[in-house]
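[Q] Does anyone have a clean structure-token version of this?
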Amino acid sequence: MDVISTAEIPAEERFAYWREMNSKLHVPYDLRCDPRMESGFRAHVGFSEFGPVQATLATVVPHSAHRTPRLIRRADPELFELACTVSGGSTVTQNGRRTDLGPGDLVLVDTSRPYQVEHAAHIPVSRVMILHFHRSLLPLPSQDLRRLSAMRIPGTQAIGALSSQFLLQLARHMPDLSPVETSRLSTLTLDVLTLVLANVLDAENGVPPHNRRRAMMAQIHAFIRDHLGDPHLNPDAIAAAHHISLRYLHKLFQQEGHTVAGWIRERRLEQCRRDLADPQLATRPINAIAARWGFTNAAHFSQAFRNAYGLPPRQFREQSATVQSG
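[A] Here you go.
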């Protein structure tokens, strides 16, 4: 992930530096800030490529970003942006619609038309995940998508909630994703975008079945990762959370060559393996690590870990410590 930050810039030069950097983006913005707040300005933005989708994870303090007619004439790559508020909040205005956004909310904007985003003074720091994608990438009419400009898509309801959860997970793990992982996630990301926007347009039947299926799996995977520590996480709970039948849930995983329980166990073991190899957790009891990731039976965990990695947990931890100290 590429990063641009004001951390190493002198305080009095940070906002001017940030304005200059934003003016050079492929979708340039005019940034504005209350002069009284410029001395405390700071920002940190990470960029990753998910195939044809560029993801931006931005942490910013109060200011506003304006996509003006002049900037559109200068550079118009014909992109849409879907933003998910990770924390904090903002106000987005486009096509005469003004919308307030809070954590988990989604919003679509058309970069070919003027709009503005305001991070208000009463919110000290906001964090937002923004996906940039060419309008031709989605199997939905561009003229229909423009009707959604600056419309709040609640992150607490139905498909919006599931899509929001996927994007929040993406934001959480984006700094650690390898190029191979981002490449694998590119199709899933587009599928999730298609599903959530089609749902808002009430046009789900127009989305190809394989897109809907992959999008649903991406959301289910995100849900599982977010609840790995819950010992009550099971197929029934997952199916209920996604408003699908238990039979359909099992069918989705079978099509990928997995079982639901097996996929959950693999993800839990991966997290345990990571923690056992972490020198900062060297004093944490193995049973506590196992319990943190949903294993309630120590003997079962030890056997499952040995089957997966060829060593019992204690020996794996000792071996990892030896490698790190050497």
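[Q] Thanks! Anything notable?
[A] The mean pLDDT is 88.
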